[in-house]
Design goal:
The protein is an alpha/beta fold. It has a seven-stranded mixed beta sheet, with helices on both faces. Helix 1 links the parallel strand 1 and strand 2. Helix 7 packs across helix 8. The radius of gyration is 21 Å and the shape is globular. The two termini are 15 Å apart.
Length: 301
């Protein structure tokens, strides 16, 4: 991101405030960082951290980053709306979310079947998805969002078990998954519930649609030379980012069959990371949760 004194940045995914704090320290008192998170716990934790550090150049907003345009207008003058030097999105879960006893992001403890980032709005709750969706719909999201090869078995097992009693906790769900898949899979390197939990979290929060909505707004908010950086942890997220970058780096997006350009599209981005940046061995060892992280960066032209 190459932050410098006096610059303005947006952190669309505040989380544990790591990016926000680093950017705020780099841009100094004349700069500004707008940090957004739908999770109120992240906002409250960041308030304490910011107060301890005595930083005065951070704006916190408890909202969904899909509403980025509205949020920017709330805090900045119209002439500043497309004058940011960088926007960052880190689409992973924070450690605080994984360890939250009131929600079930992690399958290591018995927690309520709740994987929502924020309060229930228009989306389904995780409990409603698991206990109310048709078996075919469960199989589809576990297969597509979780890329789970045993999606059919797991969806059938969930549908069968919930007929007798509602599935209330993460522990209940893990037991159902472990019974549904081969023992070799249960004892594998990756926990057998990982992909199903990922799929349910994505469906609960409508994450892929939100990402598709925020990327063009993030691009629009940048000044010339400003950078957009996205860290994804799932192949579907990364594909959305990769395709968006590719399309916006082209001068023409007409179908190849058209002999003459009719779209008048002009490239808005220059791709900085020709290949995705992934963690090295040392980082994976020190931080195992980084193992599936993929970073892509582009610059507005």
């Amino acid at each position: 991101m190459d932050p410098k004194s006096g610059q303005f940045f947006i952190d669309c995914t505040l989380g544990g405030a790591g990016y926000t704090m680093a950017l705020a320290n780099s841009v100094g008192p004349k700069g500004k960082v707008l940090a957004i998170d739908l999770d109120k716990m992240a906002i409250d934790n960041a308030k304490e951290l910011i107060a301890k550090k005595g930083l005065k150049n951070i704006i916190l907003e408890n909202d969904n980053f899909k509403n980025l345009s509205k949020i920017v207008r709330k805090y900045f003058e119209q002439e500043q709306e497309n004058q940011f030097d960088g926007v960052v999105l880190d689409l992973g879960l924070s450690s605080a979310q994984l360890e939250d006893g009131n929600r079930g992001f992690s399958f290591k403890l018995a927690k309520p079947l709740n994987m929502a980032f924020g309060p229930k709005e228009e989306n389904f709750t995780t409990y409603e998805i698991v206990n109310g969706w048709k078996e075919n719909d469960l199989r589809r999201i576990i297969r597509d969002y979780g890329e789970e090869k045993f999606a059919g078995r797991i969806a059938a097992a969930i549908a069968r078990e919930r007929k007798n009693t509602p599935i209330n906790t993460t522990e209940d769900l893990v037991k159902i998954i472990e019974k549904a898949v081969p023992m070799k899979y249960v004892k594998g390197k990756i926990h057998s519930a990982t992909r199903t939990f990922q799929a349910l979290r994505i469906a609960t929060n409508d994450e892929l649609k939100n990402l598709e909505e925020v990327l063009p707004v993030a691009l629009e908010s940048l000044k010339k030379g400003g950078r957009l950086a996205v860290v994804s942890f799932h192949s579907l997220e990364d594909r959305i980012v990769k395709n968006f970058f590719r399309e916006e780096a082209k001068d023409c997006v007409c179908p190849p069959a058209l002999p003459i350009c009719q779209c008048d599209h002009r490239a808005k981005l220059k791709i900085i990371t020709k290949k995705i940046v992934i963690p090295g061995e040392a980082e994976e060892k020190n931080n195992p949760r980084s193992r599936s992280a993929k970073l892509r960066v582009a610059e507005k032209i």
